[in-house]
Amino acid sequence: MRAPRVTVIGDLMIDHYLWGNCERISPEAPVQVVDVHKETTVLGGAGNVVNNLVALGAHVTVIGAVGNDETGRQLTSMLQAPQIVACMVTEDGRKTSRKTRVIAAHQQVVRYDSETRNPIQEETERKILAEFEESLIDSDIVLLSDYGKGLLTPALTQQLIRSANAQGKKVLVDPKGSDYSKYANAYLLTPNKKEATQATGISINSRESLQRAITELKNRLNLAVSIITLSEEGIAVWDNTLTVKQAAARDVFDVTGAGDTVLAALGYKLAQDHPLHASVEFANLAAGVVVGKIGSATATLDEIAEYEASLQRHVLGTRIKSRIEISSIAAALRKQQKKIVFTNGCFDILHRGHISYLKDARKLGDVLIVGLNSDASVKRLKGENRPVNSEEDRAVVLSALEYVDYVVIFDEDTPYELIREIGADILVKGGDYEGKNVVGSDLVKEVRLIKFLEGKSTTSIINSIRAKEAMA
Q1: If you ran DSSP here, which 8-state letter would residue 283 be given?
Q2: Is the pTM of the predicted complex or chain greater than 0.85?
Q3: Catalytic positions (predicted)?
Q4: Of 142, 250, 415, 463, which is the most exposed, with the fewest CB atoms less than 10 Å away?
């Protein structure tokens, strides 16, 4: 498909991140002390919509207002890219938005903002409208990203929508506030459930209330289509019938910017004349990718395709691979610069301890491969009465876990040769290996030990069953 041309107008800002660790409490006050080890700066607000569109391959014209300050100059310079045409209007006395987030151990600790939220001046409105009229000629679609920072005033927003409609260009809006009247006659809005509740006064807690709210928005604002995003439940669509497209997210680490991704993904597909429902499904997948990352993030077409494939791999047994297959798969993963995590074990009777262990192992990289001891291997290691479950049964159960990408059975007493064939980056073992030699440690970049849940083991389960049988 050709790369669409998208015009984005909205509140631009800088997202500033301070990354660190927290291991102590301040002696000055009962607050965490974060030792910062990394600092990053990315475009935020409407800028994150732009980043998402660029990641998808779109050509973007972005129009916005900045202050005559250092943050404004930095923001403008960050928009210098081959796929972006930036039309920034400078307004004296305005403070360009900058949000600083402190992140410790993948958790946001605090955020502090520096910005102006007053409506832009009339002269700034006229300049923005002039830039928009010129950009509209070559644009396929228009996205309005409203963060309530004063750019999208009621008068300007209505003028933008009227101009776009006059040229047959769809207008998609990520709204803000409780009064949506300024968005009237847009093609669609993308409020979340909380925002839709505020705008309609309808508490959305059932399918019936959802339908009332979504139709209220469509009818009141004369939208072509009505949409409400439902976080982990998916996206609701009303185009004469109510449809809820189920969310595609598997692991959620940070929802920052997920709304930007939905707006960008919808705009990208609709600009290429894809059907509405197919575009919504695509937006769901894109959101599923970004919420698995930390901070304002984007999703590429390759990441979305790979993510969709990973969701389909959850069919029982499809992730169980032979030695030859897993070697080929691992080689392809290395070419894609994916971080491969490997662990192994008997996994005879799957229990809570195993689930916790595998979940933590999966978080260490992009792909988790589990080496499973064959029946013969288990007997040599555990005795003639083990395993309780066959290698086939154990492999199928393991492959059904969302944290496990691939399972491969090996017959040796140790997985040394298997680790060599896979070329894993990280080797994971249980905490009981502390201070011990880990087989295969010389073949990987890193060995990580994960503590087992206390009292959770296959042996204890078997002993408990035998004790109960004896009492019976």
Answers
A1: H
A2: no
A3: 260
A4: 463
